Amino acid sequence: MTDVRPLDRSLCATAELLDLGAGRGKRLLDEARRFGVHHPLGIEVNPAKVAQAQAAGLPVYEADFTQLDPQAFPAVKVVLFDNVLEHLPSLAAVEEVFDRACAIASHAVYIRHPSFEHDEYLSSLKLKQYWNDWPGVHTAPVRLDEFVAMAARNGVYDFTVRPLKRALDSYDPTILPASAPSNQRKPAQARGEYGLYDESIHGPKPLVEFDRPVYFAFDVFFFLRSDAPTVRYSVDTDDVVARPFLMWSDRRGSPRSQRWRRAAGSAARRIGHRKHGRG
What we know:
Layout: H1 9-14, E1 17-20, H2 28-35, E2 40-44, H3 47-55, E3 60-62, E4 78-82, H4 91-104, E5 108-114, H5 119-124, E6 127-129, H6 144-153, E7 158-169, E8 175-177, H7 199-202, E9 209-223, E10 230-232, E11 245-247, H8 255-275
Parallel strand pairs: 1-2, 1-4, 2-3, 4-5
Antiparallel strand pairs: 5-9, 6-8, 7-9, 10-11
Helix pairs in contact: 4-8
């Protein structure tokens, strides 16, 4: 394997966007463009993925993001997790990483997360979403209320949730019969496609119209300051799994509210540093 360039403190010091669990970094430059920031930096623990990213000229570096020192990233405005946290070993592990992200970011923590909100409802209809039955893979099926509680424990109360791609009925190809085998995945050539239901593989399923919203995934933004950006989408996210844009001039609080939020953010960071033995 080709040697990879190491992560050094000079790279950390200038990064404005930190993508934790960046994989091969395919979205990293686009994320920086959509989020209106400079100097994106991806962190990935898998050396093979890091090597592929660096061979493509992308700023992805090998490190364990659960061990990052927040003080090494003074310029980071946004920390993001894109379909990453559900792979951590436990809810407690997710919260520790979330705490660390709140200590690093100055303005926002962004999470894209598959939906685990509808398990009980779909089970009552003898259905399931295909990713909700991946033993040993989705080991931290965190729900929205759990993320909100983590944020509150960090003194963060300003957030926005955008649901992505609504399934109106069980015809939706992300919906499988509950009796379908576990660990159903898309073949490599179909990774960009939506859904995977195939009756010849998964068997017949009840055909019902849902009497409540059922979504594919959620974008969750936690804002650490009152002058954090506004989230925008170019399409209706009920219909499309779209990517967000950040507008940095739209959210402005009064000087008093800004002082309050900065003080709350500083307190949360001090708590985070003590919790992780950094101060």
